[in-house]
Design brief:
The chain is built from 23 helices and 21 strands. By secondary structure, it is α+β, with helices and mostly antiparallel strands. Among the domains are: 122 residues, no CATH class; 103 residues, Phosphatidylinositol 3-kinase Catalytic Subunit, Chain A, domain 1 (Ubiquitin-like (UB roll)), CATH 3.10.20; 160 residues, no CATH class. Strand 10 and strand 11 form a beta hairpin.
């Protein structure tokens, strides 16, 4: 009878269907309740309930009872979690803090906690966190100063009743210790002010707490702004400077680096210190260099700062006597002032990269954190040990591209978007070096590895994921698995169950998938493959890449604008306005050829012309020359982004055949300086 009272609803339901009391009594004696009925087969239940309709009704009633019970438990658990979450948030953010999406239970907890903390002076925060960013005003606009240029972000705690003047004093000590910055010089050369994030001046008499209450920000952010010149060189102290392209000039004492020197007095030269791959020019106007000829002329130097990709056999009637045109900002003109004396030394690092082992060569060089503060000259080395003749920005872009080609092959998995995989020979130092390569490539050349999964960079830089993981997961999977996933999401009943089960098994799925839960389970698998597995790599990347301060919108823009397409490549071409008939015909062949290129060929074409396999917003200047026979072949100069096309092609198939052969070979030796 006690058992009967534990299940009154079930037996009342059976009586409402006029089921015989003998059947109900038998179920009670056998201790068969609603929980037991759920796990019984219909054949077993037939022994006790002979009528088909009664059996179905009893089974449905038992299942509904179970669902109702689970829902009550879940609701109770959820309510407790909400109360706990509200209490934690209240403690973290203060009793007055509200997330905006609280229900009645959370509001009740917050209200209760607010009353407890009211008047409790010990519960009040005594300090506020202050974030600073460094900017310089050149007269036209504010420009952010990065850490390696003497600026960078700063964070520190201030007492609530400290004045903003005290904040400014501390900021001066952080950016100009003892009144001097190793990169930017003395603080007396600048006008200093403190502004808000909209560059509005801050009242230095106001307190930190008053700013906190006025701005309504959970974390105070201000800008440390400087105005005035950043150079310590007076304009009348030295004659104008320009750059010859020779890497070295020979003197009796050894090898010196001629960087930005022409027609300088002898006291402005110094003998460099040389160590393996590093050439340093320091103490620029105090050192003495014996027996240096000071009346040299720029004509004494023979150079062409452009790099040619093309066959080793040159056409005899092609003249390269004059330097190819370069766009401003390419790195071949002096676009920043030299700093002398206490302002620091001009330092360049020469790195030698073997084409056969670019991956490990680059990682070895970038293990040194100091490489982020020097300018880099790259030299490519052939398999036979000989150095290629090219130099300039195009070589560094080629090094970066060669590195990522090998990295994608040896260190990642994925079809369109790739995810780094852990290797036993890649520890923290190696992954840190990779992050420095990403940062240096972006700062110097604007290069970003757009084949790496964007969600990895979002998690790394911003700590959250803006992109759709399921869509990215589809681009990561092999083509066949991608089609299976898309079909399972769109119409679960139409997917081949054997193929889908094999896919789930290959990704270690531990849940039973049906049409109702297929989408969240695919999302869980995507998060595991794309975020959880490369988590160690993400943490190693974080410190370097966050210094780039790339916003989520900017990151999305990078992926869109750098992706090679035939349309964008055609926009980047700059062809002569006045062309001969033969040149006009070959220009048409070139445009038609670009339209025919697929994804990989588009990357190869860009790399052939610019040294980079992504779009960097550079113009490609097209020139024509006459060449016939075996020597006929397109030639590219990567520093100047110049593409030279023979004007002797008669048909499009012959043009396409020779250009395809050139791109497919991927053996482009920099043999012209």
């Amino acid at each position: 009878m006690l058992f009967q009272m534990s299940e009154p609803d079930l037996y009342d339901f059976m009586r409402s269907r006029n089921i015989k009391d003998d059947i109900i009594r038998t179920l009670i004696e056998e201790k068969i309740d609603s929980q037991t009925i759920i796990h019984m087969s219909e054949e077993e239940l037939t022994k006790f309930v002979p009528l088909y309709g009664d059996r179905k009704a009893i089974i449905a009633f038992s299942r509904d009872r179970k669902d109702t019970s689970c829902e009550k438990k879940k609701k109770t658990k959820t309510s407790l979690m909400k109360k706990l979450r509200a209490k934690v948030n209240a403690i973290k953010g203060g009793a007055s803090y509200s997330s905006g999406d609280e229900d009645e239970d959370e509001k009740e907890v917050r209200s209760s906690l607010s009353k407890k903390l009211k008047g409790n002076k010990n519960a009040e925060k005594k300090k506020r966190l202050v974030d600073l960013s460094c900017f310089h005003n050149d007269g036209d606009a504010y420009h952010q100063i990065r850490g390696n240029k003497g600026g960078g972000p700063k964070s520190f705690d201030m007492e609530k009743f400290d004045t903003m003047g005290q904040v400014l004093d501390l900021a001066k000590q952080l950016y100009f210790p003892n009144g001097h910055n190793a990169v930017r010089g003395k603080i007396t050369e600048y006008k200093i002010k403190l502004t808000d994030t909209y560059f509005q001046n801050i009242d230095l008499q106001s307190t930190v707490e008053s700013c906190y209450n006025r701005l309504k920000m959970r974390q105070l952010r201000f800008n440390f702004c400087t105005e005035g010149t950043t150079s310590t060189i007076e304009s009348d102290e030295l004659p104008p400077l320009s750059i010859p392209k020779n890497r070295n000039a020979t003197a009796q004492s050894g090898v010196i680096e001629v960087m930005e020197i022409i027609d300088l007095p002898p006291t402005c030269l110094s003998k460099p210190e040389k160590s393996n791959d590093i050439f340093v020019t320091n103490d620029f106007y105090n050192a003495e260099l014996p027996d240096i000829q000071t009346n040299f002329d720029i004509a004494d130097f023979s150079f062409d700062g452009d790099i040619a990709f093309g066959p080793n056999v040159r056409a005899s009637n092609v003249s390269l006597d004059s330097t190819l045109p370069l766009e401003s900002g390419s790195g071949d003109t002096l676009d920043r002032p030299l700093e002398f004396g206490n302002a620091g030394t001009v330092e360049r690092k020469i790195i030698r990269i073997h084409r056969a082992s670019a991956l490990m060569d680059m990682i070895i060089h970038f293990k040194d954190p100091n490489i982020m503060t020097v300018d880099i000259d790259a030299i490519m080395v052939l398999d036979n040990g000989k150095e290629e003749a090219g130099e300039g920005d195009g070589v560094f872009r080629d090094c970066i591209t060669q590195f990522w080609d090998e990295f994608y092959e040896q260190c990642t998995e994925g079809r369109i978007f790739k995810v780094p995989v852990l290797r036993h020979d890649f520890q923290k130092e190696e992954w840190k070096a990779v992050s420095r390569i990403i940062r240096k490539g972006f700062e110097v050349s604007g290069y970003w590895p757009i084949s790496i999964m964007p969600a990895i960079f979002e998690e790394c830089i911003h700590g959250s994921i803006e992109s759709s993981l399921i869509e990215l997961f589809s681009d990561y999977l092999p083509e066949m698995e991608s089609q299976i996933v898309k079909k399972a999401i769109s119409n679960f009943n139409d997917v081949d169950q054997d193929d889908f089960i094999e896919f789930l098994d290959s990704h270690s799925c531990r849940k039973l998938v049906n049409s109702e839960n297929v989408l969240p389970i695919i999302g869980e698998l995507a998060h595991k493959e794309l975020i959880q597995q490369p988590r160690y790599v993400i943490e190693c990347f974080r410190s370097e890449l966050r210094q780039l301060q790339v916003t989520p919108g900017k990151l999305q823009q990078i992926y869109q604008e750098m992706k090679p397409t035939s349309k964008e490549i055609l926009k980047s071409l700059s062809v002569p306005e006045n062309m001969k008939e033969a040149e006009r015909l070959c220009a048409g062949f070139l445009k038609r050829y670009i339209k025919d290129l697929d994804g990989e060929k588009q990357k190869a074409f860009l790399r052939f012309c610019t040294g980079s396999d992504v779009l960097l917003g550079m113009k490609i200047t097209v020139e024509f020359f006459e060449s016939k026979g075996f020597t006929r072949s397109p030639i590219a100069h990567t520093c100047g982004r110049v593409l030279q096309i023979p004007s002797t092609y008669d048909t499009y198939p012959s043009f396409r055949s020779e250009f395809n052969y050139l791109l497919n070979s991927k053996v482009w030796v920099m043999d012209i300086v």
